[in-house]
Amino acid sequence: SEVEHIAEECVMFETLHLPVGVVGSAKQIKGAVKQVVGKTVGDAKLESEGKADKVAGKVKQLSLPAAILSL
User: What is the pTM of this model?
Assistant: First the structure.
């Protein structure tokens, strides 16, 4: 389906050597997609995985300034 295709593309972004902020954003998008799909189809596990991915992506984005400051 289109949603699964978008989620797969987000996963591909994570495996590339991209800036931390881009990877964090991709993880947040992937999480949002998983959360919506999980909620729509009634899959609580997928929905909570999506929430966790969104949080992990936000943490990754927020870690970028800390990494720069520690140089």
Answer: 0.64
